[in-house]
Amino acid sequence: MKHGQAPGARSTRRSLTALVGAATLVLALAACSAPTDDAARSASPTPTSTAPTSATSTLEGTITVFAAASLTQTFTEIASDFEEANPGVTVELNFAGSSDLVTQITEGAPADVFASADLRNYTKLAEAGLTAGDAVNFATNTLTIAVPARNPAEIGNLSDLADADVKTVICAPQVPCGAATVTVTEAAGITLTPVSEESSVTDVLGKVTSGEADAGLVYVTDVLAAGDEVEAIEFPESSSAVNTYPIVAVADSGADAAANTSAIAQAFIQYVTGTAGLGVLAEAGFGPPE
Amino acid sequence: MTNSRAGLSARPARKSGAGASSARFGGLPGWVIAAASLGALFVLLPLAAMILRVNWADFGALISSEASVAALLLSLRTSLTATLLCVIFGVPMALVLARAEFAGQRVLRSLVLLPLVLPPVVGGIALLYTFGRRGLLGQTLEVLGIQIAFSTTAVVLAQTFVALPFLVLSLEGSLRSVGTRYEAVAATLGASPSRVLTRVTLPLVLPALASGAVLSFARALGEFGATLTFAGSLQGVTRTLPLEIYLQRETDPDAAVALSLVLVVVAVVVVGLAHGAGLPTPWRRSGTNR
Fold first, then answer.
1. Exposure check for chain A: N or C terminus, fewer CB within 10 A?
2. What are the tens digits of pLDDT across the range B223-253?
3. What residues of chain B lie within 8 A of the CB of A175, using their CB?
4. Beta carbons of A123 and A30 less than 8 angstroms apart
5. What whole-number distance in Å separates Cα of residue A64 and Cα of residue B152?
6. Of A35-39, B41-45, B142-146, which has the strongest mean pLDDT?
């Protein structure tokens, strides 16, 4: 449905991008340097936690939130909490891989908020001039070893995965979880010989839950969400690759440029980065923003 | 991909059915021509849009990278093997369905053609539960020292599973339309059943067999979902061209588009071959049988 609107929105956005031109580039550069450290501090729960209550009842309308696939469960919960706190507001959610979402937004899909699973994809959107305001880092995620229930291959630590007899599945280096995998294995000084390099962390987890693989490197939150079929084996080297999740408002496409929408978008971002949102995220295994 | 390909192949069938008048739109109402043009546009426009995005300056480098070449060669190798398996098993299946009469034949026919309408991912899950480590046959195979998961064999199995119905359908339709008269005559002249089959039946349906094989090859070449679910993704072993395109898209959209074009060109050549091999007959007949 959303894609049906895309062509119109795209042309509007193109002309907008052209108009803003160089100014956007400056903004984008400023914005993309922001989330790494400064914005993270601004994400401290105290100042923002009061925002949702003060916004109650005044907001009315619909926003569309594009969020990384790993946020499916948490953002569904947060969005319904947010709707409950703001009865006039509807939050539409679209989940996909972060890079897919960036492609969709740059091709004209109507998004008001973008929550990325890594800084790289956020930066891509910022460089395209499609972000509004600074990003806020709201969560972190680290890798863990996922093994099928009862750990048939008796995996104890990361170096066990380098054993040629162990069927290890990892993410391909091209995707965020694969980049993190490269970092942790380099930090540990080991070389993996995986039987498969999947394009998404879900596919890695699928190979482990089905018992096809003896072990896979996935995020802590994935194992928690998968239930009893998999077990997590933590390893110290995981701290060398901490994935940061930034959230940012998407620049108005012109079609729905109502100030209303951006106010709701800001309120939603504040809700996610406030006590309620961070609580839901922490429960799902996400680490606090650094 | 598959649907559009089937659409492309089905169209010439009707055209040739209309006979000599087809070149002049003889007697067709204007709105039929208009609707047909819209339909053709719907198929061709996305292809044109993709070609417009091709980065021609780097095209050669993009499609000749090590990963691309490995994916293309693997795709061709596995698709050819899958086509061979389709012929080996599909010809007897089509013969039994077209010539034999037994209880439950219609049900069996529908079930055998199921992969045509089944989402490939579902096919992949089904294969996993059959040949996977914990699958129906997995344990037995493991005892025999055969490991299918994460091997090129798994890719071939997935491709054969989705491509087999194309060959059976093409051939069965042709067998029915050819009829049994010549076979009966040969039998009364003293030819053995095997001799009737190789000297009379098969030569009669050879064009349909060829076009069915080409269609199977095309379907195997485009196979993605079942492979991803069942076989995994590792360069040179299980990462076929569609999987490589899916992965490249994450970091290098130019490479993904270039490889997509390669796949389209191969598909167009294949459809052309199928047309030349007398595709219209089986498709028209199978249509009237239903």
1. N
2. 999 999 899 999 999 999 999 999 998 888 8
3. 247, 250
4. no
5. 42
6. B41-45
ipTM: 0.73
Q: Which of A169, A174, A206 sits opposite B250 (nearest CB)?
A: A174
Residue A167 tokens read as 């069927």
Residues 6+ apart with CB under 8 A from A193: A162, A164, A168
* Chain A residues near any Cβ of chain B (below 8 Å): 97, 99, 103, 167, 169, 172, 174-175, 194-199, 203, 206-207, 210-213
Per-residue pLDDT tens digits for B83-124? 999 999 999 999 999 988 888 888 988 888 888 888 888 999
- Strand A131-141 and strand A243-250: the pairing is antiparallel
State the virtual CA torsion across B246, B262, B229, B134 in degrees, nearest 10: -140
C-alpha span between A242 and B19 (Å, rounded): 67
Q: Which residues pair with residue A238 across a beta bridge?
A: none
A288 DSSP 8-state letter = P
Residue with tokens 């709701």: A264
Name the amino acid, one letter, at B127.
Answer: L
């052209």: which residue's tokens? A18
Query: Is the pTM for the entire model greater than 0.90?
Result: no
The number of beta carbons lying within 10 Å of the beta carbon of residue A109 is 21
pLDDT at A253: 59
pLDDT for A133 equals 86
Do the Cβ atoms of A81 and A280 come closer than 8 Å?
yes
Distance CA A241, CA A120 (A): 14
Q: Rounded CA gap, A93 and A76, in Å?
A: 7
Whether the predicted pLDDT of A10 surpasses 80: no
Q: Give, in degrees to the nearest 5, the angle at Cα A67 between A63 and A73.
A: 105
CB A212 to CB B132 under 8 A?
yes
Contact A119, A35 (CB under 8 A): yes
